From TrEMBL:
Coiled coil: none annotated. This is Aldehyde dehydrogenase domain-containing protein. Residues 30-498 form the Aldehyde dehydrogenase domain. The active site is at residue 269. It comes from Escallonia rubra. Transmembrane segments: none annotated. Belongs to the aldehyde dehydrogenase family. The chain holds residues 81 to 587 of 1128 of the full protein.
Length: 507
């Protein structure tokens, strides 16, 4: 990699000039797709091709599943001691730390997110996830249970087998960590289907994982598209568990394919339209900053983005003025430049160019047409690449599309409310239930809202706090199951009850 991190601080650093790994990773080896096909992955700053990547489809999924099956059934992975697995995961984390900035640069290049955020937040978070799950590897065990009669009863917590995992493009590495970390800690083997928009960083880190001692076949990575590679993984009869993060629409397909094939259990982490509630007693300056972060972080491309900003009428006018000023101050530009807060949207799915970008602009037009007040932004930024000006709408009404749909872009919608009961009703009147933010200084208000909101995560006077130990997942159409934390382990474990008749009950 021909760039220097020092240069990143003053001027745009050059992204890595070449990409080492573009093939599929099957059974510990980088291989071409069976079809020989490749697809381009693009730089969202310009639309230029970064590299051509092997395009896996059903046949490659078959090969990857066979490798994972062998590494599970014959070992070594589930047959190793938990301590051995833990040590490999910890060595992997050490290598990640060593290569932190290279990995971050690759992530920025392929995804468009600011390099400073990738280097300081996401890659360290990814590393932290593997240390956290390494810690679990040797602490997973069953119970001894008192039962009626003369029996000794115990449970064994066993790995499920081959886990199929499908991830999106907004946080390529963090999603890899949420999925692969718990699966491997529990002794499963994995076939990971990365997002077609961002295939590069997963291949790079997987190579490091093998350098750390990961045996072949334990982690297989198939780059490729959803309806081909993704669907084949969901439908595979030899995949024992499926984990998916992406849109609610695709989540339904994943669940259906999984049920129709072999009823493999599925965890889903899907879309959201999360409320961020600013109460009348809130410190407005802090609330503005937090609400801004809640929506605009990662170019607005977060499933849990605080995309319905409810502001109490008493502080509404002041909030709108300040939210607008904050958005206009947001630094948009080349994500490799120091101080840049917002890079280009990741809008490229090489088949439908600028799909996501156009979708966001369409929602902005719909906001204007439906009568919301455009306070700032509202159009693309610059003429090249896929940048959008930080956009703030006030006077947003519940029935507007911008208040209901997941936009997945830098568009803040501010809604006015009068009292707590009303805001609870409105916040809960969504098909989604992923997360919520509450901004208040009152313990009673925080407690009321915290209990009333039908969402998987409530952040009080904070937002997007993603510790490895905190479970994450959705109510309603935002998903099924929880990832991260201890809760995530049960997605990857079978419970076997063992009942032994006692010959001599006295003892
Ligand atoms: P988005 O691109 O909006 O995040 P998607 O749900 O389309 O949402 O994509 C998330 C992941 O799901 C990607 O890896 C994508 O390739 C995959 N995917 C898309 N369609 C399917 C499908 N029919 N079956 C399985 N996986 C799919």
């Amino acid at each position: 990699y021909h760039y220097s991190t020092a240069a990143a601080i003053d001027e745009p650093i050059k992204p890595p000039v070449y990409v080492n790994y573009t093939k599929l990773l099957i059974d510990g080896k980088f291989v071409d797709a069976a079809s020989g096909k490749t697809f381009p992955t693009l730089d969202p700053r310009t639309g230029d091709v970064i590299a051509h990547v092997a395009e896996g489809d059903a046949e490659d999924i078959n090969r990857a599943v066979a490798a994972a099956r062998k590494a599970f059934d014959e070992g070594p992975w589930p047959k190793m001691t938990a301590y051995e697995r833990q040590r490999i995961m910890l060595r992997f984390a050490d290598l990640l730390e060593k290569h932190n900035d290279e990995i971050a640069a690759l992530e920025t290049w392929d995804n468009g997110k600011p390099f400073e955020q990738a280097a300081k937040i996401e890659v360290p978070m990814f590393t932290r996830l593997f240390r956290y799950y390494a810690g679990w590897a040797d602490k997973i065990h069953g119970l001894t249970i008192p039962a009626d009669g003369s029996f000794h009863v115990q449970t064994l917590h066993e790995p499920i087998g081959v886990a199929g995992q499908i991830i999106p493009w907004n946080f390529p590495l963090v999603m890899f960590g949420w999925k692969v970390g718990p699966a491997l800690a529990c002794g499963n083997t994995v076939v990971l289907k990365t997002a077609e928009q961002t295939p590069l960083s997963a291949l790079f880190v997987a190579k490091l994982f093998h350098e750390a001692g990961l045996p072949p076949g334990v982690l297989n990575i198939v780059s490729g598209f959803g309806p081909t590679a993704g669907a084949a993984l969901c439908s595979h009869m030899d995949v024992d568990k499926l984990a998916f993060t992406g849109s609610t629409e695709t989540g339904k397909i994943v669940l259906e394919l999984s049920a129709r094939s072999n009823l493999k259990p599925v965890t889903l982490e899907l879309g959201g339209k999360s409320p961020f509630i600013v109460c009348e007693d809130a410190d407005v300056d802090n609330a503005v900053e937090m609400a801004h972060f809640a929506l605009f972080f990662n170019q607005g491309q977060c499933c849990c983005a605080g995309s319905r900003t409810y502001v109490h009428e008493r502080v509404y006018d002041e909030f709108v003025e300040k939210a607008k000023a904050r958005a206009m101050k947001r630094v948009v530009g080349d994500p490799f430049k120091a101080g840049v807060e917002q890079g280009p949207q990741h809008s490229l799915s090489n088949q439908i160019d600028s799909e996501q970008f156009e979708k966001i602009l369409k929602y902005i037009r719909s906001g204007i047409e439906s009568g919301a007040s455009l306070e700032s932004g509202g159009e693309r930024f610059g003429t090249q690449g896929y940048y959008i000006k930080p956009t703030v709408f006030s006077n947003v009404q519940e029935d507007m599309l911008i208040a209901k749909d997941e936009i997945f872009g830098p568009v803040q919608s501010i809604l006015k409310y009068k009292d707590l009961d009303e805001v609870v009703r409105r916040a809960n009147a969504s098909r989604y239930g992923l997360a919520a933010g509450i901004f208040t200084q009152s313990l009673d208000t925080a407690n009321t809202l915290m209990r009333a909101l039908r969402v998987g995560t409530v952040w009080i006077n904070c937002f997007d706090t993603f510790d490895a130990a905190i479970p994450f997942g959705g109510y309603k159409m935002s998903g099924q199951g929880r990832e991260k934390g201890e809760y995530s382990l049960k997605n990857y474990l079978q419970v076997k009850a063992v009942v032994t008749a006692l010959k001599n009950p006295a003892w």
